[in-house]
Specification:
Blueprint (H helix, E strand, L loop, with lengths): L13 H11 L14 H28 L4 H26 L1 H17 L2 H33 L1 H4 L17 H44 L7 H47 L5 H32 L1 H11 L4 H14 L16 H23 L1
Length: 376
């Protein structure tokens, strides 16, 4: 008989999942200051991280200008610049929506502490569903960043990147500072990508709330119960209306960056670079698809649970009630015909499993085109 995760003595609870994701996104300054950290030191840490990102961005840009005849250096610098731009963009989005994210954090923590046992079981189901992939994604990004940092130990290069500085870097102290700076920037880039795991967690929480609401349909036996049910539905929709804009901004940034990273990394797969260099950017190409999958997975589930699934369950249950109650429930059924989706008309297609499949198909077609052009 197959043992459950809990029976083997190891289980990722919602509390552990939140703590793990909180630690993994620490460098993005998404969570408000905790413990003894003051708001001033929190802001200084955030601004310093952004300043250090720009401190590497411009030397990388300078390297592109200096090595215009070396396509591989241009691509490597462009990939690093894109990852830094992603981090800065994510910090800007988090800062712009800091009140909303603080509210989401508070609501999620309140739910974990005060939810009923049946509600916790539903949310646990979602945690069991996503935590392994999310842990793997975080592991890959930080291991990938570490691989880039230790690259100079086994590769014929002095620093992790090809950044060019307007001063001499031969002094050991200066070289050590630059190496530490580039290493820290690599972890900032990893944190910028891992931040999408936090956004996905909020989406999974929203999915769980809809799932809980669907499971409570059978509790409705009279008009008062139905009024309570409609209010619960409206509260979840109101939460969704606040959650979707910042999630949409993060998803658009991530997917835009992912496309650039995949195309740029594709050149390394068909280049004459060493195997170690290729491995670094193969990890970049593969891991960059994780974020798009994470958003598409959670968004597809949300679209289903807030639309067809809810409409079907409500219709099946309320068809047995009086005509007056049927008329009341038409409001929910009508709203369920417009599921909650994540998109930006003209910029970002509706995220779903179909979108992710088309995204991968387009990526492979792009790689094939690049290979054909290079070989010709």
């Amino acid at each position: 008989m197959k043992l459950s995760t809990e029976s083997r003595g190891f289980r990722i609870t919602p509390e552990k999942a939140v703590k793990f994701i909180k630690v993994s996104v620490y460098l993005t300054c998404m969570w408000p200051p905790q413990g003894d950290e003051s708001k001033i030191s929190f802001r200084l840490r955030k601004y310093l991280s952004v300043f250090l990102s720009f401190g590497l961005f411009f030397p990388l840009l300078f390297s592109i200008v200096i090595y215009l005849d070396d396509m591989l250096i241009i691509l490597k610098s462009a990939i690093c610049m894109t990852a830094l731009a992603n981090y800065v963009a994510k910090v800007v989005i988090v800062t712009r929506y800091h009140r909303e994210f603080e509210k989401f954090r508070f609501v999620l923590n309140e739910f974990i502490l005060k939810a009923s046992d049946s509600s916790k079981v539903v949310f646990q189901k979602y945690v069991d569903k996503f935590w392994k992939f999310q842990f793997f994604m975080v592991f890959c990004y930080y291991i990938g960043a570490t691989g880039i940092i230790v690259g100079p130990l086994v590769l014929p290069q002095k620093f992790p990147t090809d950044a060019v500085y307007p001063f001499s870097v031969d002094n050991p102290v200066v070289a050590g500072i630059i190496y530490a700076h580039q290493g820290f920037a690599a972890y900032l880039c990893a944190a910028g990508m891992v931040l999408d795991g936090q956004a996905a967690l909020f989406l999974w929480y929203l999915n769980a709330k809809f799932d809980i609401l669907v499971s409570e349909i059978n509790r409705v036996a009279k008009r008062e119960d139905l009024c309570w049910y409609i209010r619960q539905h409206q509260e979840i929709l109101a939460f969704a209306d606040e959650l979707i804009p910042p999630i949409r901004a993060l998803a658009f940034t991530t997917i835009s960056v992912t496309k650039i990273l995949m195309i740029s990394s594709g050149f390394f797969l068909i280049s004459d670079e060493s195997l170690l260099v290729k491995l670094q950017f193969v990890m970049v190409a593969i891991s960059s698809t994780f974020n798009t999958f994470l958003y598409s997975w959670a968004a597809d589930d949300l679209m289903n649970i807030s639309g067809a699934a809810m409409s079907s369950e409500i219709f099946n249950v309320f068809s047995r009630h009086s005509l007056k109650m049927k008329k009341m429930c038409l409001f929910i059924i009508h709203r369920a015909q417009k599921p909650i989706v994540i998109n930006i008309p003209g910029l970002l297609a509706t995220l779903s499993s179909e979108y992710y499949a088309s995204f991968l198909s387009a990526a492979f077609s792009c790689f094939a085109t690049i290979r054909a052009v290079v070989n010709s």
